[in-house]
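ok trying this again, last paste got cut off
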Amino acid sequence: MVLSKAQEELLSPTIKRIVDKIKPEIIICYGSRTTTLIESGIFVMEDGSRESELHTFDLLIVTSDDLQPEHINIVETAEKEAFFPIKVHCLTYKIGYVNSAVRRNVRFFCLVVMQGRVLFDRGEKQLLICESIPKQDLAIDWERWYDLATKYLSLADHSFANGWYKQTAFLCHQVVESICIGLLRVFTGYRSRTHNIKRLLKLTQTFSVLPGTIFPEVTCEERGILRLITHAYIDTRYKDSYEISKADAGVVLDRAKLFLSRGDELYKNQNTNCTVVETLVG
């Protein structure tokens, strides 16, 4: 992928802070987005309106094989080093794992290694060279996860009709998770193992902003809806005091239905254009 000189200069201080904190071997950028923010109001300076840009970058952080901290701690540490107008969405893997994935022709890692922009390289370890982009059968990946999602949704409808609202919320979480995983498989070849809906939605931004628009988090109410569906996965099973109202369960159910429908549209639009996804970064 190509980053402009201005983008690299803007991102450079963030990369330096990440390198200082984590001591990675390699950092590769495999996606970027720029969002224009428009503020207006009687108390906004500059004649009542102001525009600014938010720059988001997707990073693969490759660490040494003997690095001890847990995967998620590295991700959280790295993402906290980005400040407005920069935001980073990170994945991190040890170099041995990445090289093993390249040997096995795992699509995501082959694409990132071949087409990503290397922003930092310690020069002590090397990534294997991927000779070609492996082919992928989109239909098999999508049909598996879409089928799971539709069955979870059917169970969620049944639970809601019977007044089982905790179970409704839990099953809606499974719907959204399954669609995210299916879309990631189709568009990027990445096999996510997280159950965290917020992180899954971040990962889908690599190829489309559409999934994130179903849970936009632009108001307190919208952030509350995402919290409801995110917490349902753990709280339904492990929090004895967990309860969710009929109204909230209904909102979550409607949002899960919309997410499944929009996800299927996104897949069908991609599948109409090409049978095999040939690129990830850009």
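PB: full thing came through this time. Residues 5-121 form a domain with the Beta Polymerase; domain 2 fold (CATH 3.30.460).
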